[in-house]
Amino acid sequence: MANIRNFCIIAHIDHGKSTLADRFLEITGTIEKRQMKAQYLDQLELERERGITIKMAPVRMTYKLTTNDQRPEAVNQKSSVVSRESSSSEYILNLIDTPGHPDFGYEVSRALEAVEGAILLVDGTQGIQAQTLSSFYAAKKSGLKIIGAVNKVDLFQQTRTETDITRTVSDIAQTGAESSRLDSVIEDLAYLIDCSPEEIHKISGKTGQGVRELLNDIVARVPSPQAYLEKSQQLSVSSRQLSVFSRALIFDSFYDDHKGIIASVRVFDGEFTQLEDVFLIAAREKFRVKEVGYFSPSLVAGKKLAEGEIGYLVTGIRLQRAQTSSFRFFLSGQSR
């Protein structure tokens, strides 16, 4: 688990979450350039028509550090467990892109339960907005490591050429005002997160400026996953019984005509394999896992999903037998 980082991007609507996710996909080589398109993770037809994210989108990326910096000890705020950085330079980054519109706040809340860190993204031209605050407080309540980033800094930059001598005094004054505005947004975000302005990343999701440095910071500052046991009273299972089961959170689900309900999961304890019997707690439904795998962002089948990983399980359950909204935690029938 030491080389796994689970995180999401949270922000106000139109502050550039999906565009930033595009740059992550490019830098990590998850999507080839010839296949790349704007807002790649927004796959729903309605999302592409309206230009907004409606459904959360998970994706697994493999990333190699570009620096020799080694991370010091870090504390996992969810479990208060100290974890150490692995000597390996290759990391699995599990990203969940979330909606920014307040009508889809439930999607954000589910994503926050599945990760250890969050990028709080702010549009440098607009500053902190209502949904910025809402998402921040939700992430803080979940105990996530929050990394601040100000987007669209390319709009504040002007290429200087020899013709700049012809710029008027008013042009120069306007440039100074814009720079001051950007500094003000950075200071506001730093104050909100309670960090120094130097820790806020200045990025451009459009040009890719500062994005690689942001990825490096995610590796350095977001804790690796830790075994997490929810209070046994909430599950009506004793601690002794709970310890022998594999457990995962279903943070999303969707229906496939051929495979039935496919659950997007975060594994907290143990592992899940194909043909394993699993019990859904909320739905009181038992099923045998037809397939396991991860999002790349398309479905990629694998042998198992281990502790700390994010991926999917093909349940084979039809809508007549269970509603996707009833999914929450589930236990496997096999002991560890």
UniProtKB/TrEMBL annotation:
Example of a GO biological process term: positive regulation of translation
Taxonomic superkingdom: Bacteria
Gene Ontology molecular function, alphabetical: GTP binding; GTPase activity; ribosome binding
Residues in Tr-type G domain copies: 2-226
Transmembrane annotation, as ranges: none
InterPro entries: EF-4, G_TR_CS, P-loop_NTPase, Small_GTP-bd, T_Tr_GTP-bd_dom, Transl_B-barrel_sf
Pfam families xref list: GTP_EFTU
Keyword entries, A-Z: GTP-binding, Nucleotide-binding
Entry protein name: GTP-binding protein LepA, GTP-binding protein LepA
Origin organism lineage: Bacteria, Candidatus Wolfeibacteriota
